[in-house]
Amino acid sequence: MSDKPHKMQADNGKDGGEEGRGTAVITRTKPKAKKPSLYRVLLLNDDYTPMEFVVHVLERFFQKNREQATRIMLHVHNHGVGECGIYTYEVAETKVTQVMDFARQNQHPLQCVMEKK
Ligand code: TYC
Question: How close is the Cα of 37 to the center of ligand 1, in Å?
Fold first, then answer.
């Protein structure tokens, strides 16, 4: 993330100049580090979705290779829930929607959810 100081306009003028009104532009000295909140995207186990379909979902939407995808799928199968990735809010929301739409299109009950870290 950028830690470049950031100009704040205090004079209500255009482009920060003083323009002879005795006002000034102040500069932020401390870098403003706004870390975005992160969200885990999780897959939930069920008794019907084929293992191969879950592996495909992990490859397609979460950029996992076959070995990583198989490991995550088996973790979900054995433990009931497992992490597919960690993303900012909008990206996580998009992944959940993509997985849920894809599962529904293929008539599988696979559930995908997100939770704040
Ligand atoms: N439990 C499923 C089966 O035995 C496989 C599965 C794994 C389903 C992970 C969902 O998120 C899941 N076919």
Answer: 29
Over its C-alpha atoms, the chain yields an Rg (Å, rounded) of: 23
Beta carbons within 10 angstroms of residue 54's beta carbon:
26
Cα 56 from Cα 68, distance rounded (Å): 11
pLDDT, one tens digit per residue, over 66-106 is: 999 999 999 999 999 999 999 999 999 999 999 999 999 99
- Asked if residue 55 has its Cβ within 6 Å of ligand 1, the reply is no
83 contacts 42 by C-beta, under 8 angstroms:
yes
Whether 96 is in the pocket of ligand 1, judged by its Cβ within 6 Å, is no
| Ligand 1 proximity of 77 Cβ (cutoff 6 Å) | yes
CA distance 88 to 36: 7
Q: Read off the pTM.
A: 0.79
Q: How far is the CA of 2 from the centre of ligand 1 (A)?
A: 42
Copy the structure tokens of residue 84: 């597919």
